[in-house]
Amino acid sequence: MGTGHWIRRMGAKGPGDVRLVCFPHAGGAVTFFAGLARALAPDIEVLGVQYPGRQDRHREQPVEDIGRMAAAVGEELGALLSDGRPSAFLGHSMGALVAFEAAVALRGGRSSKDLTHLFASGRAAPSAGPRPGDLLRGDDELLTELRRLGGVGEEILNDPEMLSLIMPVVRADYRALASYRMTPGASLDCPVTVLTGEADPIVSPREAAQWRGLTSADTRLHVFPGGHFYLQDQVPQVAAVVREALLSR
Q1: What percent of the chain has pLDDT over 90?
Q2: Which of the 8 DSSP states describes residue 90?
Q3: Domain total for the chain?
Q4: DSSP state of 203
Q5: What is the edge-to-edge ordering of all strands in the sheet holding 192-197?
Q6: Tens digit of pLDDT for each residue in 185-230?
Q7: Tell me: the pLDDT tens digits for 230-241?
Q8: Which InterPro entries did the record assign (predicted)?
Q9: Any domain includes 21
């Protein structure tokens, strides 16, 4: 499944010329994108970024800094993206910030010309700074926020043993969100497609549209039915948007 320390191939390598690198949300792992990977196969190869502290990296210490995560991912992707195949990034929630910073890190390198698109999902533009929900501290507040956003089943949230496994990662990711500040002057030159749920409690369509100011290329906004984890129920619809953006050139 893996292609490196941070990157995981989501399914068999297909014949498609385009690859999509997916960055999970806070507390999330590459399996969040399994349905999307199946929907895009075989035309678009999907890779996932596996952050430390989860699934096959559960023994590793989580990273509490989005810039450090982006730099590490960018370093590994630099060699991968240098094969000349067009590539795009898709990040959901916290993953949109990591994807943006990784894209900025690649922008001046030899592989930047092959980064053709950024899909930013479920997150206000990095220039907006931390959201109120990013500044939570205690476990009780974090659990309340997880319930509010959805995406984690009640059977997990009510299971002390399961919570003991996921809470160190959740705490670390929220510390990373609280401390994150966009790289000064950061911008992109590739198209950006913004994806959001119409009932997302942490980002309005208006806030999502602020991504428009972070690229010199076109920006499009797609609003789907659902909340913060709209993607779980809108896989075919999101796959259609990705296909149109990446394969209709």
Answers
A1: 57
A2: E
A3: 1
A4: -
A5: 7-9, 44-49, 18-23, 87-92, 115-121, 192-197, 219-224
A6: 888 999 999 999 999 998 987 888 899 999 999 999 999 999 999 9
A7: 999 999 999 999
A8: AB_hydrolase_fold, TEII, Thioesterase
A9: yes
Confidence bin at 86 (pLDDT 50/70/90):
confident
CB 188 within 8 A of CB 215: yes
The number of residues making up the chain comes to: 249
CB count within 10 Å of CB 9 equals 18
DSSP 62: P
Burial of 153 (0-12, 13-18, 19+ CB in 10 A): exposed
What's 168-189 look like in SS3?
HHHHHHHHHHHHCCCCCCCCEC
Classify residue 53: in a domain, yes or no.
Answer: yes
Domain of residue 159, CATH code: 3.40.50.1820
Residue 117 lies in a domain: yes
Peptide bond into 126 cis (omega under 30): no
Q: Fill in the amino acid letter for 58.
A: H
Active site residue ranges: 93
Residue found under tokens 């390598």:
13
Q: Tell me if 35 is assigned to some domain.
A: yes
Element spanning 46, H or E: strand 44-49
Whole-angstrom Cα distance, residue 166 to residue 49? 18
Q: Do residues 8 and 47 lie in contact, with contact meaning Cβ atoms separated by under 8 Å? A: yes
Question: Which tokens in the block code for residue 19?
Answer: 């690859």
Q: What is the pLDDT of residues 106-142, one digit of tens each?
A: 875 544 556 899 999 999 999 887 777 777 678 888 8
pTM exceeds 0.70 = yes
